[in-house]
Specification:
The complex is a heterodimer.
Chain A (H helix, E strand, L loop, with lengths): L1 H15 L12 E3 L4 E6 L4 E6 L12 E2 L2 H8 L7 E8 L6 E7 L6 E7 L5 E3 L6 E6 L13 E9 L2 E8 L6 E6 L10 E9 L2 E3 L3 E9 L2 E8 L3 E6 L8 E3 L1 E5 L6 E9 L2 E8 L4 E5 L16 E2 L2 E4 L5 E6 L4 E8 L2 E8 L2
Chain B lengths: L1 H15 L3 E2 L6 E3 L9 E3 L10 E6 L2 E6 L7 E5 L2 E5 L12 E5 L4 E3 L4 E6 L12 E5 L16 E2 L5 E5 L24 E6 L15 E8 L12 E3 L9 E4 L6 H7 E3 L3 E6 L4 E6 L6 E8 L15 E3 L12 E8 L3
Parallel strand pairs in B: 9-15
Antiparallel strand pairs in B: 1-2, 2-5, 3-6, 4-5, 6-7, 8-10, 10-13, 11-14, 12-13, 14-15, 16-17, 17-20, 18-21, 19-20, 21-23
Classes of the chains: A mainly beta, B mainly beta.
Chain lengths: 345, 335
Amino acid sequence: MVKVFSSLCFTAALALAAPAVELKSAGPLTFGPNGTLFAGDSAAGRIFAFETGDTKPSKGGTVEIKGVNTKIAALLGTTADQILIADMAVNPISKQIYFSVARGRGPEAVPVILRADTAGNITEFGLAAAKQSSVSLTDVPAEGGRQRMEAITDLGFVDGQVVVAGLSNEDFASSLRSIPYPFQAATKGAGIEIFHGAHGRFETNAPVRTFVPYTIKDKGYILAAYTCTPLVRIPVSDLKPGAKVKGTTIAELGNRNRPLDMIAYEKDGHAYILMANSSRGVMKLTGEGLDGYAPITAQTEKQGVPYETVESLKGVQQLDKYDATHGLTLTDEAGSLNVRTINLP
Amino acid sequence: MRTLLLLLALTLVLNAQAVLRSGDGKVFWVENAAPGETFQVYVGEGDVPPVLGAFSAENGRLVFRPRFLLADEVRAIFRGVVTRFPALRAAAVPSTLVEAVYPTTDRLPENLLKFYVVFSGPMQRGEGWTRLQLLKADGTPVELPFLEIDQELWDPGNRRFTILFDPGRIKRGVLPLNEVGPALVVGQTYTLVVDSAWRDAAGAPLRKGYRKTFTVTEAERRPIEPSAWQVVTPMAGTRDPLSVEFGRPLDSALALRLITADVAGQSRLRSGETRWEFVPAVAWTAGDHRLTIDVTLEDLAGNRVGRPFDVDVFNPVTTKITGETVALPFRIERR
């Protein structure tokens, strides 16, 4: 009897298993509703959605994981110089922290998703057991000898759409795609062209580096940061496949800088945006009246939305929202990567 | 005799606490674990968690299969006794080289968008930005000329690395860039340096570094006009190459991918990527032929077919391109 039961279970498990499209590389992560984890896979040119089942609400707590790169390397049975942590995302329901990691740095690197509980204990998140779906970003299947790839630089979930920013290794263009979720079989992530005017008389279709979904007067926007740090406002309603969109530059945050990550939050009744940068530290910008700033059209340095630099935050590489009053940072401190919750400034 | 017996007993006790590893390194086990007892396998020293893997009881042995093959030195601890295993891999020998840097020409426009560094074998990710420098003629480095994105832009085999110039450091328009100015200045000479310390996929540094010296010319802001290309046609019945002179260098990767002929064959770039040549698989047939050019083809400054890289908001020069490709007809004559 027991035998029959177990074999039945096995059959059921097989039937439940989604058609296996394997994750080839693990890049940017973001959470959607009900514990759905989206992962960008640059190597396969796909966006994956995993139903994590990680839906038990938790208030979380103070998290600190020192040397997360060394710990993850040890778990994966290798050394810290043989892994790469691509992204970190907090499950807003359970407050567990998910990491996308490559084990190995060559073309044979294996993608792994790991998860840290609220006590900081890290385990592997079993991709095979999670219900998954995925969508291809390219019309052309990868063929032998084909060298074009697209690095997925950021991923966000807004108004039922997965928004994907990418950068090609061959053609230079902004690639921003908006893909409805649940994924439809026929959906291709069609590109959107965004021009912005941060270069004097010229407008450029330059790649988005990072973005954050944002609501202004009940209207959904994404605030996109570009590599030479203009901050550009784009209505979500404009993000339609094949559209040519003119983004409105609302801030110039300075040259010689790369925006790395952004989060939006409220504190004491006011809205703010926190932006981690490669060389200009962590900036706190007001998130209010963003529709009121005159579009910047002339070449300029630092104008528009006012900001202050948060001196207490140094070396921040990754930033996510932890809860209403806390953020989660991944900082590089002399080669040791440390994860910790911070009070939102 | 008593000493011998003692030694034998000690050996047995120690062996009982030893962790064993299979020849291929994939399996670890102990012979006589009590129910509920386990051992731990570690890579790395200090406060690190044990490696991920699965335990199982097999023929009286407690067996551990790590999630990944452990190629580094391994520590295993059973009943407080440490067993050490040597690394499975030998030290890597330098063998990889930089084969080429594109564009190959040594005269490059002020608004150059990118370089491709092509290696002879697969490389490691994650260190590219520490291995590249752009030097001025006096040997001092240009500060942050490139768009350093963490993801790094490789081809699928990790053999070609794409370096994009930071869009904020590419000269545009008439207004001066505040603060730092453009990375490249007309008339100046620069050297792109690839450091030999860059590690290949096996972990070995390059056999030697690479230097590409070039002089900067005026910015290129014209869209690509295929109708202005010079096409030199071969005679029917031969497999002589069809030759197309662009009049300026084009992006090497895009030119090879996005210009296609209506017959099978091989394309190649010559003369510093200013000429495209096509050798048909079988001899040319007389009559009308055509090349198809995808409009996303770019030159060295990102100008596309019918559309410059920067859209000039005062004097737009964007030509109306209706399709995604343009055709370039040519005729092969009988001998």
